[in-house]
Write a structure and sequence with these properties.
Two copies of one chain form a homodimer. The first copy, chain A, is α+β, with helices and mostly antiparallel strands and 671 residues long. The first copy, chain A, has an eight-stranded mixed sheet. The longest helix of chain A has 53 residues. Chains A and B meet through helix 1, strand 1, helix 2, strand 4 and helix 5 of A and helix 1, strand 1, helix 2, strand 4 and helix 5 of B.
Chain lengths: 671, 671
C-alpha cells in the first residue's frame, strides 16, 4: 500500500516551471498594460521605438506613421509604419511574437529597445484582449515583395504561432508595418499618444512623425534637422563597476587563449601598460588561460582592475542629443509657448556605472506661456524615449526634488519637492543600459551615480536660470526707472517753464545726472529680408567713455551673421564677436547692427551683450564681461582709457561735472 | 562569390534568445537589487516570505529567525531559518536557484510568493557580487537527516548548479535554512530589515520573528495570537473580468469533454441554472466540446458570461487579517506610541478584478507619540507583506493622496497629497494576484477597482477618525469649561460671602444653570484584579431626567465583561449593552461599573458611550445614540419619559426652574 503523501511531498508536487510568457501574461501591468489608456500608449511606444531604432541602425532618416482608429466598443486598431530596413522573413515571427528575443540585449550600445520584450508584449496583450492576431508587413530592399504574416504568441511555450502568411506588392522600397487590434482607450492630453510622440519629436529632431487620430485628425511633427545622429557603436565592457560574478562569466566564456589577451581585448580601457600593472598586482601570469583564474584569484584580479588607472570609458556607444539639438527640439515643439529664456543645455561627460557608460543632458526653459502658478513641467527621457508614467518613482524626479530651487529663483515649499513656476526641465539619460524600475521602462531606478550626474547637470543649468532671473529683475527695475525719468522729466520741466516763464532747459545733463548709466538696447526686428538687430548704446554718464562691446551669439547663427560695422575680433567656434566703440562723450550715442538671413534659428534670448569700460552699477541693458572670457582684445581697456584721456586732454576738453548741481532726488539712486 | 550581407541580414544575424536569468542579471534593479541597502532588504524579505508561506501551507505556527552578520568590507552574511515543513531534496536546487520556478504561480489563492522569482534572484545576486554559493539546509519530518546543498544559478541556462552536497543531523524536526553572502549594507531605521520584520509582525500576529543584527542585538517580535489564519483555499477562476484570450486558453486546455461541464466545473460561480442561461444566450450547445468554440463564438460566450448573473466570487482563497487582529497587531507593535485612538479597522467584502478576487483592509491610528507636524505614516501591505519602497508609485499612496483629509480632521495642503498629523494609516490589499508594478513587489500598480475599494475603506475609517476628533474637541471645550466653573465658582462665592458677611450659598443650582448638561465620566482603572471602569452620570440640568445608557464594547472584551448592575439588554455579537437609569433629579447622580479580567485587550478608546433622553447640546462625556443602532429597548424613551412625568406629577414634584434668575454669564453658553 502506498502511504498518503506527506506535506512536504504535497508541496513538492505543485512545484513547476513558469513560462516567461505566462508570467508576463498574468503580470501584464509590469509591462505597461494595466489599463486601456496605458495599454494603448505602451503599444504605440514599443512600435515607434522599434521603428526609430531600426532606421537609425540602417542609417535611414526615420519617417514613422502612427494611426489609431476605432474598431468597436473598447477596441482600437493601432498601426505603426516606418521606412526602416525591414526584417527578414525568418526573423519576423520571433521578433514580434516571442518574449526575451532581440538583437539589442547583448550589444553594448545605446538603443531604445534593450530587452526583447516590448513589441511581443503588445502582441500578447492584443491576442489576450481581442483574440486577434498581429498583422506584420515587412519588406527588405533586396526583395521584390513584402511578407505579410499574422501572428499569435503561444504563452505556454513563449513561441510564435503563424495564423496566416502571404506576400504582397508594397509601394515602399523597404519598411515595416505592424497592425494590432486591442482593448484600449484613446485620450488626448497627458499620457496620450500625442504627448508621447511630441516628446519623441523633441529629443529625436531628425525624425518625421505623423499621428492620425481616431477622428481623422492628422498631426505631423516635422523634423528639425536632416542630420542623423552619429550611430552609437558597440563597445566592450569597462572594468569600472564590474561585479565579481560578471568577471567570472567573462573569464569562463572568452575565446582568448591567454589572460593578457583577455584583459587587453575583451575589456575596454585596459592598455598594454595597464595589463602589465594589473597582472603584477594580482600575481597572475600573462600566459595562463582565463578559465584557470578561479575563486580567490578572481577577487584579486578584480581588485587590481579597480585599483589600476585605466583609460576612461568611450562614449562612442552613446548617442546624446547634444546641446544645440536639445534647444532646437524644444523650440520646435514649444513654439507656441514662446518662452523668454532657454538656459544653455548641459551635456555632462560620460561616466560608468556597473560597467555601463551613461551620460546626462539637461535643458531648462523659462517664462512665456508656461503656467506660473503650477508645479514646473518635467520632461524625462531615457535613450531618446519620453517617460510618461511613474514620474514619482523616477530617479530624475528625485534629483529635481532634492535640489533647493529657491536658490535658483523658483518657488519651492521647504526647499524640497517639485518646484513651482513657469519653467520646464528636460532631462535625458543615455546609456548602454538604463536601470529601469520595471520592464515597462517608465522610470529610472534610484542609483547614486545617476543621481549625482543629473544633480550636477541640473545645477549648471539652474545657475544659468538664476543669472537670467537676477539680470531680468535688475533690468526691469533700472528700465522702469529709466522710462519714468524720460517720460516725467520733460513734462515737469515744461510745466515749470510755463509757470516761471523761463524757456525749457536742456534736460540731457539732468537725465544723465539722475541715471548715470551706459544704456544698451538690442531688439531684434524680423522682416522679409531676415532678422535685423540694431544695437544702440547711449552714454548717460557725466564722463566721456571708451567702451568695448562683446556679443555672444549661438555659433550656428554667428556663421551666417552679417555685422555692420565689422567686429574688431571674433571667435566663431565660441560664437563671440567684439568691437571697440568710438569714444562717447556724455550724452553721446553710437549704433551698430547685426543681420541674419530669414529663418535663422536665433532670437533675443540667444544674444548676450557685455560691455567693458564702465562698471556694473552704471550699465543698463548689458552685463559686464564675465571672468571666463579669455579674448585677445584689440587693445586693452586700460590702454583705450589712457588713449581717450590723452585725446581729451589734447583737445582741451573738460570732463563735464554736475557735482555742484547735485539734487536730493539723485542721492538715493546711486548704489 | 558570396555578396556582402545587406543591412537587414546584418541586423538579423544579431537576433537571438535572451535567457530570463541573463535578463534579470542585467536588470537586477527590477528585482529589488539596485543598491547594497535595498539588496539586503530584498534578500531578507524573499527568504522570510517563503518561510511564512511554507509554515502556513503546512499548518505550522511560524518561527522565523533572521541573522545578519558582517563578512568583510561591503559584505554581509544573511541567514534565515524557519520551522516550516522543509523541502524535498529533489526540489531544493530548482526552488532556490532557478528563476520562474515555484508552486504558487499556478494556484489561484493568496500567497506572499507568486512569481517563483524572489529567492532565486537573491541567490543570483549573491553569486554575482561575491561569487559565493547559497547554502541551503532543509529537513522534512519523515527523514532522519537534513540535506545540505551549496548552489549557484547558471544565468545562461537559468538552471541550478550544485557546488557541494552533504547530509547532516539537525536538531529541528523539520525546517529550512538559507545562508547567503552578498554585497550589502546594514542600516537601522527606515527601509531596514528591522522595519520590514516589524511590519511583518503587525500583519502576521501569529508569527514569532527574531532578528539578530550584526552587532549582536537580538530583537524578538512575539506573536500576538496562537491561532493560525484559516488556510487560503485554491479556487477556480471567476468569469467576471475574464479576458477573451484567457477564455480561449481555458477552452483549449480543459479536460472536460463538454461545454456544459467546462462552464460548471472549470469556472467559479456558474450554477447549473446559469450554465443553461449562458448557453441559451450565446446559442452554443451544452454537449459540444470546449475546443470547438472558436473565434466569434468565443466572443459571444464571454459576453453571455458577463451578462448573466453569477454567484459572487468566494473569498476562501483570501486570507485577510481581520479587524480584530489588525488592531491587536498594531497595538502589539505600537505599544510605546500609546495612540489615543484606534479607528475600528475596516475589512471590505471581496471583489473581483480580471478574474482574481481581492479585498482591502484599513486601520487608522491617531495621537499619542505619533509626530504631529509631519506627514502621516503609511503602512502598506500586500498579502501580509510590508511594502517599504516605491511608496510614491503605489496605488495605495495614490488613493490616500486623492482623498480630501481636511474633511476628516487632518491637515492637507490644497486637499490632496499625503496629509499631515499624528496619524498612521495601515492598508492591506489581499488577492490571489496582486498587480505589482515590478518583480520587486514594492508597489501596487494603478487599478480602478483596487483604487475604489481602498478609497471606500479609507472613507469608512476616516469617518470614525472625524467622529473621534470632533467628539474630542467638543469634550475638550465643554470639559474645560466644566472644570473652570467647578473650580472658580466656589472661590468666587466664598470671597463674595466674606465681603458681604452673608453665608456661602448652595452653588449646585448655579452650576446647573450655567452648564445645563448631563455629564458622563468613564475612566478605566487597571489593578491586579483586572480592569475596572466606573461610570458616573450626573444630571446638571434643571430638569428631572429619565435616561437610557448604551455601551459599545469590542465583542471579544464584552464576552468576558462583568456588569454591575446587569444591563437591561445586550447584543454580544455587536458588543452592545444598555441600561435604563434610575430617574435623576436636577443635580442627581448615579453610577455603574464594568469589570474585565486582567490583560483583557480593552482600553478607554475601545469603549463608546451613548445616552438617550437628553439632546446632544446638553450631553458631556457621551454621545447621542447613533441612528444605525437598532436595539430593542426594554421600553422606549417616549414611554420612559411619560412614565417619569406621571411619577413626578403624582409625587407633587415641580420642575426646578432657574429662568427667573437667569444670569448674563450663562446667556452666551447655550447653543
Amino acid at each position: 500500500m502506498v502511504p498518503p503523501p506527506t506535506i512536504a511531498q504535497q508541496l513538492a508536487a505543485k512545484q513547476r516551471e513558469i513560462s516567461v510568457a505566462e508570467f508576463f501574461e498574468r503580470n501584464r501591468q509590469i509591462l505597461g498594460f494595466d489599463n486601456p489608456q496605458r495599454s494603448l500608449l505602451t503599444t504605440v511606444k514599443e512600435a515607434a521605438d522599434n521603428s526609430l531604432d531600426g532606421c537609425e541602425e540602417a542609417g535611414i532618416l526615420p519617417e514613422v506613421t502612427v494611426q489609431v482608429s476605432k474598431e468597436g466598443e473598447d477596441r482600437l486598431r493601432v498601426s505603426v509604419e516606418d521606412n526602416g530596413p525591414g526584417i527578414l522573413r525568418r526573423e519576423i515571427p520571433n521578433v514580434f511574437a516571442r518574449l526575451l528575443y532581440g538583437s539589442r540585449f547583448h550589444s553594448n550600445r545605446q538603443a531604445r529597445g534593450q530587452q526583447g520584450i516590448g513589441i511581443s508584449a503588445a502582441v500578447l496583450y492584443a491576442n489576450l484582449t481581442t483574440a486577434r492576431p498581429a498583422k506584420i508587413i515587412s519588406k527588405v530592399e533586396e526583395e521584390e515583395a513584402a511578407h505579410v504574416l499574422e501572428l499569435f504568441l503561444d504563452t505556454q511555450k513563449n513561441q510564435p504561432r503563424i495564423a496566416s502568411e502571404d506576400v504582397m506588392l508594397w509601394d515602399r522600397p523597404h519598411g515595416t508595418r505592424i497592425e494590432l487590434v486591442l482593448r484600449a482607450r484613446y485620450v488626448r492630453g497627458r499620457q496620450s499618444p500625442y504627448d508621447y510622440l511630441r516628446g519623441t519629436a523633441i529629443v529625436n529632431p531628425h525624425a518625421r512623425i505623423v499621428l492620425v487620430e481616431p477622428d481623422g485628425t492628422r498631426v505631423t511633427f516635422e523634423r528639425a534637422t536632416s542630420d542623423l545622429p552619429p550611430p552609437a557603436k558597440e563597445t566592450l565592457p569597462h572594468p569600472y563597476g564590474l561585479e565579481l560574478g560578471e568577471l567570472g562569466y567573462f573569464l569562463k566564456g572568452t575565446k582568448k587563449p591567454t589572460l593578457r589577451e583577455f584583459l587587453g581585448k575583451d575589456l575596454q580601457g585596459v592598455s598594454a601598460r595597464a595589463v602589465g600593472e594589473v597582472l603584477d598586482r594580482c600575481g597572475l601570469k600573462p600566459g595562463q588561460s582565463p578559465s584557470s583564474v578561479q575563486g580567490e584569484a578572481q577577487e584579486r584580479l578584480l581588485k587590481s582592475l579597480h585599483e589600476v588607472s585605466l583609460v576612461a570609458p568611450s562614449s562612442d556607444c552613446l548617442s546624446p542629443i547634444g546641446a544645440m539639438l536639445i534647444k532646437r527640439g524644444l523650440r520646435n515643439v514649444l513654439g507656441d509657448v514662446r518662452p523668454e529664456f532657454y538656459a544653455p543645455p548641459v551635456s555632462r561627460p560620460p561616466k560608468v556605472r556597473g560597467g555601463f557608460p551613461f551620460m546626462v543632458e539637461v535643458g531648462i526653459v523659462y517664462g512665456g506661456a508656461l503656467p506660473a502658478d503650477q508645479p514646473i513641467q518635467i520632461l524625462r527621457f531615457a535613450n531618446r524615449v519620453p517617460l510618461l508614467f511613474q514620474q514619482g518613482a523616477c530617479a530624475i524626479t528625485n534629483a529635481i526634488s532634492n535640489l533647493d530651487w529657491r536658490r535658483y529663483g523658483l518657488d519651492q515649499k521647504g526647499g524640497s519637492g517639485i518646484p513651482s513656476g513657469p519653467a520646464l526641465i528636460l532631462v535625458h539619460v543615455a546609456s548602454t543600459k538604463i536601470p529601469f524600475t520595471s520592464e515597462a521602462k517608465e522610470a529610472i531606478a534610484e542609483d547614486p551615480e545617476i543621481d549625482r550626474e543629473v544633480t550636477l547637470a541640473l545645477q549648471v543649468a539652474a545657475r544659468h536660470l538664476r543669472t537670467h532671473l537676477s539680470r531680468r529683475s535688475r533690468r526691469d527695475q533700472a528700465g522702469a526707472k529709466f522710462e519714468i525719468i524720460l517720460k516725467i522729466l520733460p513734462k515737469l520741466a515744461e510745466k515749470t517753464s510755463h509757470l516761471t516763464g523761463n524757456p525749457v532747459p536742456d534736460l540731457t545733463p539732468v537725465v544723465t545726472r539722475i541715471m548715470d548709466v551706459v544704456h544698451l538696447d538690442a531688439t531684434p526686428v524680423t522682416d522679409p529680408a531676415g532678422i535685423r538687430v540694431p544695437v544702440q548704446i547711449v552714454n548717460y554718464t557725466p564722463r566721456a567713455r571708451v567702451l568695448e562691446l562683446f556679443a555672444e551669439i549661438p555659433p550656428e547663427a554667428m556663421a551666417v551673421a552679417k555685422f555692420d560695422p565689422a567686429p574688431d575680433g571674433t571667435d566663431p567656434g565660441l560664437g563671440r564677436a567684439w568691437w571697440t566703440l568710438p569714444k562717447l562723450t556724455p550724452s553721446g550715442r553710437t549704433q551698430l547692427e547685426l543681420r541674419f538671413p530669414p529663418k535663422t534659428d536665433v532670437d533675443a534670448s540667444d544674444l548676450d551683450w557685455y560691455v567693458a569700460g564702465v562698471d556694473e552699477a552704471h550699465l543698463l541693458g548689458a552685463d559686464p564681461l564675465p571672468g571666463d572670457w579669455d579674448v585677445r582684445l584689440p587693445r586693452t581697456i586700460v590702454e583705450a582709457a589712457e588713449a581717450a584721456a590723452a585725446e581729451s586732454a589734447a583737445a582741451g576738453e573738460e570732463e563735464v561735472d554736475y557735482d555742484a548741481a547735485e539734487s536730493s532726488a539723485s542721492a538715493g539712486e546711486e548704489e
